[in-house]
Amino acid sequence: MKINKLSIAVVFLSGSMFYAQETKQDTIIKEKKIDGVVIQGSSNKKTETAVLGEQKKAVIQKQAVSAEEISRKGISNVEQGLTKVTGITTVEGRGLFVRGLEERYNYLLINGLGSPSNNPFQKIIALKQFPTDVVGKLNIYKTFNSNLYGDFAGATFDIETLTIDKPFTKVEFSVGVNTLSTFRNNFKIAEGADGMNGYLGLNSKDRRLPDEIRNSRPSNYRFTASESTNSFKDSWNVDNVKSMPNTSIGFTTAQKVKMGSGNLGVLFSLNQGSKFEYKNGDNNQFRSLGKESFIDNMNFLNRKQYTYETESSVLLGLGYKNKGTNVNLNAIYLQNTNNIIEDNFGYKDGQVRNKDSGFFRTNQLDVSRFLDLQLTASQKIADRHQVKAGASYVMNNYQQPDRKIIEANRIDPVTNQMLPDGYVQMRYGGNNLIRQYLDVDSRFYGSAFAEYQLSLGEKGDKKDYPIQIAVGYNGFSDFRKTSYRFIFGRTSGSSNQAHVVNIDSPQDVFNASINDGSLFYQEGSDTSQFYSSFYQIINGGYANINLKPNDSWDILLGARYENDMTLIRYSKQSDDNKQNLEKNKDFFLPSLSIKKAINSKNNLRFSFSKTVTRPILIETMPITYINPDNVNIVGNPEIKNSENYNFDLKWEYFPTNKEMFAVNLFAKRIDNAIERSLVASGNATGSTITFFNAKKADLFGVELEGIFSLSRISESLHNFTLGANATIMYSDVERSADQLKMEEPEWFKTTGETLRKRGLQGAAPYTINADLKYELKNRNNLAHTFSLVYNVSGSKIYATGGAGTDNYYEKPFSQIDFVYQGQLSKNWNVKLGVQNILDSKYKILLGDKNYLPLNIEEGNNTLVNYYRGITFNFTVGYTF
């Protein structure tokens, strides 16, 4: 029998690249009889069906969000995409929670390489900065395997950069309006921040530490009148503008070049966006006054926050593929700026007399920059051997340059009446004028991996070898330096005269006071604590063996050895010399994953592993981060890594290649669990957010997930698909001695009372994600998709309380989004999204199980609350 072979051109993208095989037609032109056709090709790994098939086949519990799903749901960044996965939710400004666990329990890989955070307040990069235009697939590993880093309890996220089927060039423009923030008059923004420099994030150079002290140790340097006027390039003034619609523009192109017997792929992507956001709500604090007393307000404030945010990203990649050889070179740059003006009205530190007249303003710029250079390669040797390796070098920096704080009062010093709106009276000296400079600079970050794979035995019916062995190494080195300095406005006048200023334009008054000698600037940094250094080196070696005794069993047994060398160099208050805090620990981390294919549609899975959890940088940084509302963050350099024992038992059912249902039972024991606490400050004013290890925490839960076509109900609903997932969890904490000392009221020592049981800080009792999709194709086979998406998570502990107060609870926040995705023609596509349709209020409340009665302002037990408004986004794209 003669067979004509048709090799279909297939375009590949490995990492961020794509490659094309040359189309060859083996047809014998003169042959008149065709006995058969063999088509050789590759499935599109971007589709939801392909991703579901990969999930079904994998031995470990791996979920993914495909490029197709990203597009269908109008997902614009990686953070949004990950919230569509079972048990994953996003929490306001604090990253992603997996199975109710705080972000500190997650880890991030980019194309398999370790990635540091570019923000000391977060464990991983703020993934909303990572645009989905360059993402092919988001992999989520919720069970551990030895080739992953041991820093794992919630999940490891692996971003695989763009995968495509053919060369293309795409331009996309988006515009959005928010019911609360857009077209708002008198939207406050730092002077000049809304210009081109602010749009590109270049305005930070005007807010750098002045030349006079930039490269020297703090010495209480006093700036002359000329220096006080000219050395600070950034003004205390703010502009009042009309907030415009949010916009973003993206350009992505992917091309290929034939190179010898292989192909060279080139990818370039550029994205730029800006966003205005306004929040208005409570900003309170509470304190316990001791036995036979009550709990009252420490702070009672109304906060108005104006944020102008810009995001920039650039990705450039080169990739070469030739038979079994793959080589990829990527450069990824992310930049984020947040220009924040925050006004607080009311009193703090229990100064009730200022309830109607107190005021302070923060003028803040947050800047993060992240450059990741990656080189990865793999080589197949015959059919049984494969080697792969990769390395990355990352430069990242986080700054809060010239964070300006003004504290004032709205009472006229002459008439003793309230001043007109926009005017305050203030006196120089004390903490009334402060400039803060925080810089967390990466001196060096390097990550690498290498792995050898060997296949043994003979292939079975599913074309898999029965024994696959892998041995490898991965690790990273992370060196950072923290600089934290303060400059105060001081007075040299004997009377400390009150000055009435327009709070939006006080610079001229300040300049006049500098010129007449009644105001000058002087550095007030703590000479012992103005900088610290953090060094961490993680080296991990691993081996795993994948056994497939027959087509129904898949067993993956792994072992990982990981050495953690951490050194923190810092000074305690008033110490002259730095001290070294060394932490050197070895971890042996076993893992076992078993998959039993009951039949072609049912899988049963079991997994066990031991892992560790390392703290977020701010949780271990030896600094006191000062906030103007006197709620300061104090790192704990003595904090320990958590050690986690993870168990999962899962049943999966795949009725069709587009449907699935799964039930997963899980349990975790977390020794030395890290928790956030909010307690009264040790200096009798303000509050402190700090971090302690619990003795242990136990968690038990169940995850439910389903994707079904509604044609099962009625054939008239064949265009509808329902996807839903939910996590229900119980947690219990055994407090450590440090926590008991902090949480127990003083009188417990004499009364014998004990603290109530509580769950793990940050653990939500439930999370729900759901989406209803309607998809149709017109007579030109162009697809139109409508999706309704819902997310919520249950009430969870934001921070543990102390000295008689209950814990602080982050309340459920329900969100419904609507997304339309339409292909208007071969080239044109549009998206319409409506986010936060319910416009729920975000709330953190003091719990109602306090150990003392409440005597709080207006009966308001709110710590923080605000609305976000409803956002409408319209995106148009052209592909050619």
From TrEMBL:
Subcellular location: Cell outer membrane
Keywords attached to this entry: Cell outer membrane, Membrane, Receptor
Domain named TonB-dependent receptor plug: residues: 58-153
InterPro entries: Beta-barrel_TonB_sf, Plug_dom, Plug_dom_sf
One of the Pfam families matching this protein, by short name: Plug
Source organism, top-level taxon: Bacteria
Protein name: TonB-dependent receptor
Species this protein is from: Chryseobacterium herbae
